[in-house]
Amino acid sequence: MKQGQKKAMRRQRRKRRVRKRITGSPQRPRLSVFRSCKHMYAQIIDDTDGRTLMMASTVQKPLRGKLSGGGNRPAARAVGAELAAKAKKAGIKKVVFDRSGYPYHGRVRELADAARQGGLEF
């Protein structure tokens, strides 16, 4: 097994372990983060209905033109702010943060801080 595969498997194991305890409800949906090398994605999910309420990413048009790159900390900050603005418009104030097995550091932390500054509580 290659090194990249081992790393991905370890992250998936951490993700499953965290997801056993974290679930999103209509009162407190789950804010899930995914990061790739080139882009950042975040979505707010209601796990009881099994549907995504809203999402923001560096691939979408509102952010794609503004950013120099999609896989850096300023891009993560922009995604967090965009998602918080959409949530505020929809009336969502409280969420449960799901870092998806990634360390709470760098891009994941920037996204979380921007979402908090935008008005989300977690």
Mean pLDDT across all amino acids: 93
How much of the residues is beta strand, in percent?
15-25%
Taken together, the total number of domains comes to 1
State the total count of DSSP E strands.
4
Residue stretches low in confidence (pLDDT < 50, at least 5 long) are none
Put simply, the count of helices is 4
Helix/strand/pairing class, anyone? alpha+beta
Q: How far apart are the first and last residues' alpha carbons, in Å?
A: 38 Å
Query: What string gives the helices and strands in order?
Result: HEEEHHEH
CATH class: Alpha Beta
Quick one: biggest sheet?
4 strands, mixed
Silhouette: globular
What gyration radius follows from the Cα positions, in whole Å? 14 Å
Using the 3D structure, state the CATH architecture: 2-Layer Sandwich
Order of strands across the widest beta sheet? 3-2-1-4
Helix content: 40-55%
Instruction: Indicate the CATH topology.
Output: Nucleotidyltransferase, domain 5
